[in-house]
């Protein structure tokens, strides 16, 4: 995650809020978020993409992640999910930039 934060800063994108709690009664949090734009960033480690073991790969962890993402979407959040490979090749930064630009256009309209 630190690498992504560094890359976002290097790309002159705003700094996101890390460990952002979007649903306190469920203790659901995003790895990082732009709360005003309702854009969330989730780094999916331990999914067979070089991240090792993770609670996300257990049946209960996967179910909880699905619930979290679906609730977030129903609340108007754009959840950007990235495996480590998308962090390494720059795709994550490009997609976050695109999501921020799209939200800004929506707000301006």
- Uncertain stretches: 47-51
Can you tell me the number of structural domains? 1
Shape: globular
Major beta sheet, strand line-up: 1-2-3-4
| CATH architecture heading | 3-Layer(aba) Sandwich
CATH top level is: Alpha Beta
What's the helix-strand series? HEEEHEHH
Q: Figure out the total of helices.
A: 4
| Average predicted confidence as pLDDT | 91
Given the helix and strand composition, which structural class is it? alpha+beta
Helix content: 40-55%
Number of strands: 4
Strand content: 15-25%
Q: Give the biggest beta sheet.
A: 4 strands, mixed
CATH superfamily: VSR Endonuclease
The radius of gyration over CA amounts to: 14 Å
Region (Disordered): 43-62
Protein name: DUF559 domain-containing protein
InterPro entries: Restrct_endonuc-II-like (IPR011335)
Describe this structure as you would to a colleague.
- The structure is a single chain.
- The chain is an alpha+beta fold and 109 residues long.
- It has a single domain, classed as Endonuclease, Chain A (3-Layer(aba) Sandwich).
- It is built from four helices and four strands; from the N terminus they run αβββαβαα.
- It has a four-stranded mixed β-sheet with strand order 1-2-3-4, with helices on both faces.
- The radius of gyration is 14 Å and the shape is globular.
- It starts with a helix and ends with a helix.
- InterPro entries: Restrct_endonuc-II-like (IPR011335).
